[in-house]
UniProtKB/TrEMBL annotation:
Pfam families: APH. InterPro entries: Aminoglycoside_PTrfase, Kinase-like_dom_sf, Pseudomonas-type_ThrB. This is Phosphotransferase. Gene3D superfamilies: 3.90.1200.10. PANTHER family: AMINOGLYCOSIDE PHOSPHOTRANSFERASE DOMAIN-CONTAINING PROTEIN-RELATED, SLR1880 PROTEIN. It comes from the Bacteria. Residues 22-255 form the Aminoglycoside phosphotransferase domain.
Length: 355
């Protein structure tokens, strides 16, 4: 891959024959990401996964428009840095090399760092405030300009149907090893009724749709929030899912794929910190229906990613990158455990979010 980058991709960025250093970066489950550095500069280079992102030009155009909108506010109105795209020598947002991949580059932020597990309330509140700030800054962005990169991305009925299909197909012959989790997931369909009742009342906004803790960069120098990254799945949607994905990825003291299930649980103090940070930015923007949807969003996101990991396990690990045997099943078990912990602490958590 490194040779493809050097010979076929870098020339499009004016780095022909350069001695640039190319190193893998980050922990994404979908794309391949590299940090390219040379004497006078650096950039983040990504090979987009076109099995997942079937219309990659839509993705780079969406991200371009959003970062342009944020860039116009950077400083005075938008207090975070913007990860703007780097255009090619031909003035394009990406390089499509066919079989050799679809490549795009974005600005690398010096002094930035990311975390995989939230260590304390302060970090959670800062990160939630940053994701809230991002959503707030997009309130006056015309959503009609951007397309759906993945249709029905956060659509629970579709994710349940995909699991049922995977169970019927049992392509990888793994059903016997995970039948209990399948039964558990399918027993939670009561959420669909709540969703059907609430969703028609919710406004559509431009959402980030992947508000994982590692998509918020901290400034290493003072631990402040620096930037929201990964604009790949920015699409029209509901704020409850962005809130829910923060709950999913901030509240557990264990990483998403940890097999230490005894320790996987929602930390109520972190949950409360997310509410404080997010509502400090969006409290006056959100409609009453949105506010009352947050608890549902938290449950849906934890359950839904568990379902997606389990489906991929049954299908033979064709969607998410895996790094060990049974990795997707480990992730599913972890996320279902976190979901259960939400339910166990429902009264306390609902009170926090005012539902
Ligand atoms: C994927 O690759 P990454 O980390 O940006 C996935 C998200 C999941 C997440 C789970 C396009 O995001 O939806 O929540 O993994 N992205 C896509 O960690 O499916
Ligand atoms: Mg992503």
């Amino acid at each position: 891959m490194i040779e493809t980058i050097r010979q076929q991709v870098l020339p499009h960025y004016g780095l022909e024959g350069s001695a640039a250093k190319i190193a893998p970066l980050g922990n994404g489950h979908i794309n391949d990401t590299y940090l390219v550095s040379w004497d006078e500069g650096n950039m983040v280079l990504q090979k987009l996964n076109t099995d997942v992102f079937k219309t990659p030009w839509t993705l780079v155009e969406n991200a371009g428009l959003i970062s342009q909108h944020l860039g116009e506010k950077e400083g005075a109105e938008y207090g975070l840095k913007v990860v703007s795209p780097k255009v090619t020598a031909e003035g394009e947002l990406a390089v499509d090399l066919g079989e050799a991949g679809f490549w795009r580059a974005i600005r690398y932020l010096k002094h930035s760092s990311s975390i995989e597990v939230v260590g304390n309330e302060e970090q959670a509140e800062q990160a939630a405030r940053a994701f809230g700030h991002f959503a707030r800054a997009l309130c006056d962005f015309d959503a009609a300009q951007i397309g759906d990169v993945i249709p029905k991305f956060h659509f629970l009925p579709g994710r349940i149907a995909a699991l049922e299909q995977a169970v019927r197909d049992n392509k990888a012959g793994r059903l016997d090893g995970c039948r209990d989790w399948v039964d558990f997931a399918l027993s939670q369909q009561g959420l669909l009724d709540e969703l059907a009742e609430l969703e028609p009342k919710l406004p559509l906004r431009v959402c980030h749709n992947d508000t994982k803790i590692n998509n918020m960069l901290f400034d290493k120098r003072d631990d402040s929030a620096m930037a929201i990254i990964d604009l790949d799945t920015c699409m029209k949607g509901h704020l409850m899912y962005d809130f829910g994905d923060m709950v999913r990825t901030f509240t557990s003291p264990e990483a998403e794929d940890s097999t230490n299930l005894d320790r996987v649980q929602v930390r109520p103090a972190i949950f409360a910190a997310i509410c404080r940070g997010y509502l400090a930015e969006l409290g006056d923007v959100m409609q009453e229906s949105e506010r009352s949807s947050l608890w549902l969003g938290a449950r849906i996101m934890c359950l839904m990613i568990g379902i997606r990991f389990l489906t991929d396990h049954l299908n033979g690990d064709v969607y998410f990158h895996v790094h060990r045997e049974g990795h997707n099943l480990d992730r599913a078990a972890n996320q279902f455990t976190l979901y259960r912990s939400l339910l166990t602490q429902a009264d306390e958590l609902k009170a926090c979010v005012g539902c």
